[in-house]
Amino acid sequence: MTSWLRTYGSVPLCLLFGFWLVSLCAVEASGAGDSVCRSPAIASCTECLRRGPQCAWCFKEDFLDGAGPSQRCDLPEKLLKRGCEAEFMEQSEVKVEVNATISSTQVSPGDISVTLRPGSEASIVVAVKQLERYPVDLYYLVDVSASMQENLDHLKTVGVALSLRMTEHSSDLWLGFGSFVDKPVSPYINVHPSKINNPCSDYEIRCRPAHGYHHVLSMTGNMSEFTRVIKRQRISGNMDTPEGGLDAMLQAAVCQRAVGWRPEAKHLLLLMTDQPSHLALDSRLAGIVTPNDGLCHLDNNVYTGSTRMDHPSVGQLSDKLLENNIYSLFAVEKQQYQWYEELVRLLPGSYLGKLGLFQAPNLIELVVDAYKRLLSEVALAVSVDDRAVSRYWVSVSPICPDGSTAENQSCTGVQPNQTVYFNITIGMHSCPAGVEDEDIKVMIRPVGYNESTVVRIHAKCGCSCGPTKSCQDDSQSACSGTQDSANQEQRLEHGPIKSPNRDSNWSCRAEGSDVDCGGRGVCECGRCVCEQSRLGTVYGKYCEIDDFSCPYEGGLLCGGRGVCVSGECVCEDTWTGDSCGCIASTATCQSADGSLCSGRGSCVCGECVCDDLHHSGDLCERSVAHQSTCQSYWKCVGCHVSHGLTQEEAGLCNSTCPPSVGNMDDVSGQTEEMWVQCMYISKDSCRYRFRTNSESGQTQLYISSRPECASNGRLVGTFLSVCALTVLCGLVVVAVSRLLLQKRGRSAGGASEDGGYLCTGKDLSYIPTTNEKTVTYRRDRPPDRPVEMHIQVPKMPLGDPWQY
Question: From CA 615, how far away is CA 608, in angstroms rounded?
Fold first, then answer.
């Protein structure tokens, strides 16, 4: 209440009450019409409940006796008013049950059961508590290729020093060790017989054979044993630059028993390398095309699947690290920092350190800093079964210890004994085709924690009141709604009920169609079972209706202000129109006197539409300009002007004029407000003044008997006529002269007997016999000046024939 007053304290209470009253009336008005649950195409309980979580189905035997099955589907409150008791209703009830028998220390609750129907959602809260001192398991996974010789020597003193430093943060530290190089096949290694057993034979050094992954030391709290094992390690060698680090990481994560990961401890996996790693599909270079199965393949602590399976994908490695509650740490040299920086973004709960040298102090600081940072960040990972991921959606909203709400599903800066709460909403889009009920699991895992929450979802896609349709049962149940329709058909035909032919599909095809269920469903037991579309719901007797074909506005279905039902938009209370683009309220159309559009129009989409063209304005408060009124009488005035203005001749124009027409000699007098002054211009440029008077439904028209003609109107017309005649005569003279000149030229030259072309009207002495041209060119390096050449080309005599 306090927050409500703080928000609306400046608004008068009476105004708020008025808004509440208006909205309540709007809700009641909207409830009077058909609801979103009502549709003639609904014929069963299952179809009804798939309309939405707000719909209910009445399976009472005698409910609305004689009505169709679609009448059984409606909002629960409407079904109650129509005589269906609550115990006879099938509803989309959402249930959330917490199993209190499963106890946990860090993550609670541990087990939750949720019941959902299509279109419904449920919210749960998961609490994650950060403990003060965790046991820690740290597994060293080291690249032992030849370039790592010096770095491997630095590890010999890190065990005891790290154990002493970690006592500040953990009371129990265990260490393990494993090594990797690359897949021992060509082209990753040299397969020459002299190189397989000793890749370093060219350098007269004894090396270990290349290997994909070798588990050396299981988790132990004996630091002396860890140091002794490190001192015995020798380097190996390979051919290409990338190493098989990700392949070895997956094996170290999934081989829980061999590595010795403790269930109660925090798991840290430290990868040390100076090169990038191979990714999935890289193994095709060696002819290995079998995808990695994500399982443990250790035989005598050696990875046997290295030469048979591809490297894992980044997504697959991420899933395995989450499943086994492992934080991944990367200690890399500066040259490879950028490559692993991109990789770390794709692995939740990972940390990257850039080291100049793999010396003991640097490694110890890296592990301690990563441990502190990873534990101070609480992140949540949610995974849904792959077979159902498209039918469900999950939303996560964390509430951090300081009361803030994070946007990236994680909280940072969490201290020991603090709790982070995650508000998780799980919703259901649709049911799988042909399935009445479905059970799936949703795993909620805090990254790096050995505890998790299991959400068991029971999806109800059918109805429990009885079979929706059965080919074997001739007695039709009220759950399917077919009993009422069958009885109605019997009464209409005054005969026995006609049972459908189960061997034909005549009842699944619309009239004139040769396709079952319109091609959007299958025919079962003489009825269409419509397909499930990703765009929405398809339904109807012949699957001819859908819920996604409504008009769009602004790129949104129904403008985002309503829902699409049976191809039509069912708008929210304050909106209307085909695409819910119109404001339903008429408050914007109210005039100052309280009338709607000044009593001269109707309110459409929150705007006034005037009844006729004689009014305008936002509220139809203005009359149309006088010019439009005057123009409506021009035809009448023109008729009187052409027939004369005397009373005797005015009778010829009565059919097109107002009931009363009169002449006026003086138009300069005072004009009452009821008169509209107008002017008519005739074809001979004469101006006739007239005025109209509409009173008591009768129109009077008075025309001036003294027109005002332009003083030079007739002179101008005469002048234009003379000009046009002069121009026409001039054109005729020019044309005749041209014809005479052409005729004279032909008679003087004579016609060519041989049909050759002669140049007439031109003195042949002026025709040159040669073409002359002066050409100037310049050499690349002229000795002194440009060279000019004068060229004369003789022309063919005028009368000579062509020579071939």
Answer: 11
Pairing of strands 708-709, 686-695: antiparallel
Packed helices 158-166 and 360-376: angle between N→C axes, nearest 10 degrees: 30
Distances (CA, A) of 7 to 10, 15, 20, 169, 403: 8, 14, 16, 47, 21
Q: Does the predicted TM-score (pTM) go above 0.85?
A: no
Same domain, 178 and 326: yes
pLDDT one-digit tens code per residue, 376-389:
888 888 888 877 88
Same domain, 82 and 140: no
Distance CA 379, CA 409 (A): 6
User: Domain ends where: 709, 744, 759?
Assistant: 709
Short-list 271, 229, 232, CA closest to 251: 271
In a domain, 352, yes or no: yes
> How many domains does the chain fold into?
6
Strand, coil or helix: 113: strand
The pLDDT tens digits for 619-646 are 888 775 444 567 667 777 777 777 665 5
* DSSP character at residue 186: T
Q: Are 124 and 140 found together in one domain?
A: no
* Continuous H helices in 255-324: 256-259, 314-323
Question: What are the structure tokens assigned to 510, written together?
Answer: 């619309």
CA distances from 143 to 251, 299, 304, 365, 468 (A): 15, 20, 18, 20, 63
Query: In 10 A of CB 285, how many CB atoms?
Result: 14
| pLDDT tens, residue by residue, 568-620 | 888 888 888 888 888 878 888 888 888 888 888 888 888 888 887 677 788 88
DSSP string, 630-675: HHTTHHHHHHHHHH-SSTTTGGGGGGGS-SEEEEES---S---TTE
What does the H/E/C string look like for 513-582? CCCHHHHCEEEECCEEEECECCCCEEECCCCCEECCCCCEECCEEHHHCEEEECCEEEECCCEECCCCCE
**What are 507's two structure tokens?**
């009842």
Asked if the structure places residue 498 within a domain, the reply is yes
In a domain, 764, yes or no: no
DSSP 447: T
CB distance 73 to 38 below 8 Å:
yes
Give CA–CA dist 427/52, Å, rounded: 12
Residues 151, 39 within the same domain? no
The CATH code of the domain that includes 408 is 2.60.40.1510
- Residue 286, SS3 per DSSP: helix
Largest CA distance in the chain: 137
Note whether 573 and 27 are within 8 A (CB).
yes
For 632, the domain range is 627-709
Rg (the chain; Cα; Å): 48
How far apart, in Å, are the Cα atoms of 93 and each of 49, 118, 743? Answer: 10, 11, 107
730, containing H or E segment:
helix 713-749
> Is there a single domain that holds both residue 55 and residue 171?
no
Residue 570 is assigned to a structural domain of this protein: no
**Under a CB-based contact definition with an 8 Å cutoff, are residues 704 and 686 in contact?**
no
> In a 10 Å sphere around its CB, with 0-12 CB exposed, 13-18 middle and 19+ buried, how is residue 138 labelled?
buried
CB 626 within 8 A of CB 676: yes
